[in-house]
Amino acid sequence: MSKHEGATPANGSPGGEQRLSRASVQRFSLYLRHLERWNDEGLQVVSSSQLGDALGINDAQVRKDLAYLGNIGQPGIGYHLPDLVAALRRCLGIDRPWPAVLVGVGNLARALLRYRGFQRQGFTFVALIDADPKKIGQVVDGLTVQSPDKLPEVLAKTKAELAVIAVPGDAAQGVADLLVSAGVRGILNFAPTVLRVPPAVSLVSVDLAVQLEQLAFLVHLGQDEP
Amino acid sequence: MSKHEGATPANGSPGGEQRLSRASVQRFSLYLRHLERWNDEGLQVVSSSQLGDALGINDAQVRKDLAYLGNIGQPGIGYHLPDLVAALRRCLGIDRPWPAVLVGVGNLARALLRYRGFQRQGFTFVALIDADPKKIGQVVDGLTVQSPDKLPEVLAKTKAELAVIAVPGDAAQGVADLLVSAGVRGILNFAPTVLRVPPAVSLVSVDLAVQLEQLAFLVHLGQDEP
DNA sequence: GGATGTGAACGACTTCACAGCG
DNA sequence: CGCTGTGAAGTCGTTCACATCC
To answer: Domain limits of chain A?
Structure first.
């Protein structure tokens, strides 16, 4: 998968000085989504084992993760759901809006634009960029596609700190370089390429081909097994 | 997440009997993609450090990974590219075709259907499934959308062992159950839900919301740091 | 010299097990 | 009693360092 880390791991909470691993952060997202649903359903309290069972995660792991948020759980009772949700959102940094630009207006981009899960967590696409002259000027989901030249001014104007790259593999590094020099802070890359960005810029990659091959490998392995 | 283990490492060499970790398999895919490009460009030999540098991976790691393929490298020289590519494909199980069905015909599905990287590695979508009556009967990329009821016969007829789930979160577990009872062997899940499948079925999940939140977290962290 | 393969050290993540509190 | 928080143990994965071979 992708690596990359720029900044120093800061820490918010009082008392315990632990490290948030990448894996914990991913679990935080899973916790949050599930908890928000339970919260909407009116549930007030939840225990580490309930949450763990629902997600297929060991309960001690859940407690270790949540302990990072401060002493938020009550022994003998569990965790107060609304507090927990709020603490998770704050910790993940999604207690505020995250405007983002989307580079590469193909089918994947359309899928992302219409994916409700993003808006719900505060992510909004505020600009569309594509190098194809035939696409520039088109309006998709209320946004006008603009040329990559415009990136610096678009980022300045919209205050977007995040970008999503959804272009073909051979164009991706060029786009990334452009984004970096325009001052982007984080990139979510869907192109099938290993990107190089300076350490101050965060990078998360989702490589579809890799995931599908991983699956093929697992099935391939299990082939002759009882 | 899903597990799976079982088959013995088909390995002729005496001595070293290692296990292929999930992480190694993912790197295998990255290696393969890069090596195929170099191979097409006519390169004959490659070293672990060249490959590692290109991908941002430690060279010892590369050697450890490749050692799993048998004693394929030549000390003082490097790895013979065509052999290496062939060995990787065989090991990953993509030295043969992988027909797959795609459930949920939205924008994401269209993006996947048109993604060239899949075909190149032997993955082909042989059927489209969607529960929406308005979509059933439509033809997308040469395939007619069919009802989920048809899954058992579709899997039987097409010999597809893999399925891709690209439906909304609340429908995903139902689809997975259907696929499992229709005899699927592996599922690639894009729905924002933690799926439960029996251990004989392999599962790989790509959770877009989680990845974007991971990115937000990294940027959020780095915010006030030099 | 240059590059592989690999034990051993290291580090990261997960699970266990239990003290302590409501 | 049930449930949290956490040291300790265990497991897994990565990096180092070096013997070995071309």
So the answer is: 22-92, 98-211
User: What CATH code would you report for B98-211?
Assistant: 3.40.50.720
Whether the Cβ atoms of residue A122 and residue A160 lie closer than 8 Å to each other: no
Sort out which chain A residues have CB atoms less than 8 A from B26's CB and list them: 1, 210, 214
**pLDDT per residue over B52-82, tens digit each?**
999 999 999 999 999 999 989 999 999 999 9
Element (H, E) at A125: strand A123-129
CB contact under 8 A, B115 and A215: no
pLDDT > 60? residue A21: yes
Dihedral sign, Cα of residue A36, residue A92, residue B167, residue A110: positive
Cβ contacts, strand D, under 7 angstroms = A 15-16, 46-49, 59-60, 63-64, 66-67, 71-79; B 19, 21-24, 57-58, 60-61, 63-64, 74-77
pLDDT tens digit sequence for A127-176 = 999 999 999 999 999 999 999 999 999 999 999 999 999 999 999 999 99
What's the CATH code, domain B22-92?
1.10.10.10
